Every structure is written in structure tokens, then in C-alpha cells.
Amino acid sequence: MKIAVLIGSIRQGRQSHKIGYYLSQQLNDKHHEVEVLDLATISLPMLEERVGKHPQLPDAALKMSHQLHTADAIILVTPEYHGSFSGVLKNAMDYFSAEFHKKVIGVVGVSAGKFGGINAVQQLSQVVINIGAYCVPTRLLVPEIYGAFNEKQELVNEHTLRSSQKFLDEFEWLASAINGKKMATAS
Ligand SMILES: Cc1cc2nc3c(=O)[nH]c(=O)nc-3n(C[C@H](O)[C@H](O)[C@H](O)COP(=O)(O)O)c2cc1C
């Protein structure tokens, strides 16, 4: 499958990207075609108008639209900020609509504390439903992110290692089921 991993943290000294790149590598190892859409490297302005309505859509939005459109399934990674998901991720998501429609979306939350971004994940899951996507019921919560990876960027937290595998298994299962159905309907 073709999978897009959208990383919704651009903070100086950010940590959330680590789990995004880790999941991408895991999916690569399983022979999926993975594209990381890291908002820290994408110059996406604050939304003035959506794809399809903006008279002069920013190039970054046009490129992202194509990347999301061609993805079979998507993973969203967000830090928890003030009890919700990041503003930069919401701004990016608001550009798009059809790009998400009937796609399987896995949600990943990150926090420095013990709760793994549960509030961010709950609220982001609600948005995922509102954009007409299929939210993977198993969400990945990554607590205590500052100690979760070592200096070589290897995931060393046993709990997060196990929960990441469970999350990826569920994500792959649902994504392949929905994509199988789409292919069967198209043929
Ligand atoms: C503006 C801001 C608000 C935050 N609010 C919360 C919060 O509500 N709950 C929480 O568990 N962590 C909160 N944090 C800490 C994040 O969990 C922490 O920054 C973590 O490393 C994940 O985000 P990062 O990708 O920015 O590093 C907040 C951090 C920032 C910068």
C-alpha cells in the first residue's frame, strides 16, 4: 500500500516527529511505499481558502494534495498542546477534503507526560470522522516521549514498542480491508 505519514509538530526542539519516522520505517520494512509529510519541512501558509476554491493555491498545498490523494491510507502524528492536537496540523488538514474521503486514517498522540496525548487523540479522531475518513479504532498513545528514543533515534520504551506494533497491525488490517473493497468495487 501507499501510506502517507503526516507529522503535525514543527516546534523548535520537537519530539513527536521521532515516532512518525519510526512508524514510517516499520511500514517501509513491511514493503509499503511510505511518504513522510513533515510539516516542519513544508511551507504551508495559514489557510486562506481550500484546495479547489483558492484562486492561487500555494505550491506546497498543491503538492500535498497530490501526495494525500495518491495515498491509500494515512497516519496523523500530533503532539498534545493545551489539551488538544496541534494547530499546525489542523491548519494543514483544513486545506483538504476529498484527499481524505473514505481513507483509513491512524491517529498517533505524543506527550511529555504520562498520558500519551489522549486528549489530542480523542479530538483528532473526531475530526477524522468529520472529514469522511475511517479512523482506526486503536489509536497510538506515546507518553514520556523525551525518554522513549535513545541518541541513535531508536525506540527503547518497551511499552511503546508493543503498542506501536499493535497499532500498526490494526492500521494495516483495516487499510488493506478497505482498499481491497475499493479495488473489488472498481473492477
Ligand atoms: C504549547 C504547548 C502546550 C502543551 N500542552 C500540553 C498538554 O496539554 N498536555 C500534555 O500532556 N503535554 C502538553 N505539552 C507538552 C508536549 O506533550 C511536549 O511538547 C511533547 O514533547 C510533544 O510535543 P512536541 O512534538 O512539541 O515535542 C505542551 C507543549 C506545548 C509546547
Automatic annotation (TrEMBL):
Lineage top rank: taxon: Bacteria
Cellular component, GO, one term: cytosol
Transmembrane segment boundaries: none
Ranges of residues in domain NADPH-dependent FMN reductase-like: 1-142
One Pfam family named in its UniProt record: FMN_red
GO molecular function terms attached to this record: FMN binding; oxidoreductase activity
Protein name (record): NADPH-dependent oxidoreductase
